[in-house]
Structures are given as structure tokens and as C-alpha cells.
Amino acid sequence: MRYGIDASTLLLIASGDRVVVPTHTLVAPNRILPDLLELLLAEVRDGSRDEKDALAVHTRATETKIRLLGDRVSRRTAWNLAREHDWAELRDAEYISVAKLQADALATADPRLVGLASTIVTVVEPAALSQV
What we know:
6 helices; 5-stranded parallel beta sheet
């Protein structure tokens, strides 16, 4: 299976809370690592994670085997999705477009993204990444 993932799912993987079955392929837009850094910064700021651990998680995330995509077709699809649904930003549309074009499903723990994506692509919980 090919799964599109978002930063919240990458955070689970890099934190060791989710193991990915080796036969699964992960795809994501190029923006996933900066988005992950924003999540980690928020956790450091609110005291739920210390800085040393946050930086270690980021390092593990950069070592995670993910096919990063940012080609013209996925960006144009993201643009079209945002316009069609009247979204003010492209961030969510990029994750959805990668899943739509390159994956069997979008794995996300973000309830907001689930709500936006569920009528466009198949959405699964990150637990699906651990299943054959």
C-alpha cells in the first residue's frame, strides 16, 4: 500500500509511537519537514516535550523513508482543490493532492484534515501503517 502522510503522522512515526510495515510506501509533499518542525516547536513551547527530544525526533523524521513530492502536477492539483473548496491556504490541499495522485489513502491523526479530506480521498488512522 502507498500512504500519503501528514506532519502529525510523521511525528508519531519519528517519536516511535507508530511502526510502519516495510512493504508500505510513504509519500508526502515537500513541506512535511517544516510542518513537523512547527508541531515540535509548539510542543516545546507548551512544555509537553523538551528541546533535546524535539530535535532528536526531527532527526529521526529526516531518516524516515518518505518519497517527497512537489512536482508541478501535485501543486496544480492542490491549487485546484483549494479553489474548488474555497480554502484560504494550500497546506491541507497539498497533503490531499499527494494522496489523491500518488497514494491509496491518506494516513492522518489530524481531525481537521480528516474532515477536509474524507470526501476527496480515502482517509485512514495512522494505525493502518502498522498493518499488513
